[in-house]
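Whether sequence alone determines local backbone shape is best considered at the level of individual chains. When preparing material for the folding task, we compiled for one chain both its residues and its backbone structure tokens. The sequence in question and its structure tokens are set out directly beneath this paragraph.
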Amino acid sequence: MSLINKSYYALGTTINLSVATPSTDADLDAGYQLIQQFEDKLTVNRTKSEVMSINHNAGIKPVTVPLDTYDLIKRAVLVSRKHLGFNVAIGPLVKLWKIGFKGANKPSDSEIQAKLKIIDPEKIILDDSQRTVFLQEKGMEIDLGGIAKGYIADQIKTFWLDRGVKTGIIDLGGNVLLVGPSLHQDGMWNVGIQNPIKPRDVSLGVVHTKAKSVGTSGIYERKLVIDGHEYHHMFDSKTGYPIKNNLASVTIISDKSIDGEIWSTIGFYQGIEKGKALIEAQTGIEAIFITRDLDTVVTSGLKDTFKMI
């Protein structure tokens, strides 16, 4: 057996898909087609999608969406209403700063204050019986960017297992979801954890794990520097500014990639002390916190499986 790999471009990033023989290129291409289908449904980076139909009708009327999209939005809204740092309504603030995109800027405080009024997840009205989503105020937007990659990775894994894929790697721009046993004799995987101040693929440590999701939220992917001040793209819904703490990244090890996305965002927002306590209370979810000074703190379940390089 050997791994075959192909790279694609989707979801605004490089996608790497791998399967072990006897699975083939056809499984990789079918996985990529699935990504494209979900991107068409969920993106906010185009004028048309199921999510954009909701955004275009903000303050106007509720919009009916297919069950899979509705369930994903509902999950994101319910997590957002816990006000732990994950916010599906944050889109208008992200678009105001544009960090990582053309026209990135530091907005005025009055512009930020205006957006804070419309990034409230309590103003998203869900109707389970009609499968409708209604954004109560004009200018509101939902943005599934903080959850969609994880959701899509989980869908590919299910799809591949149904196709008979025994071993594979789904890497959606650094969000890694492992499928089945590795090709090592013990069937375990070794996953490198990014050194947040070095170029991509330079690892700070390695997790030795069975097939899990390994997902990271960090400040190193997108940033803006103005007058010597560095602003990253992880925003605080209370202040409208990038989250202020000494973290560089939070990596979550979980069964489902969608949980990794949610908890890496919450962990980053909460910081090491509160974030670690919250994650320790979640069954089957572990975290690696890395500070800007490269201090590393792990939850108890990783004590024997995470090793510094």
Remarks:
- Residues 257-280 form the longest helix (24 residues).
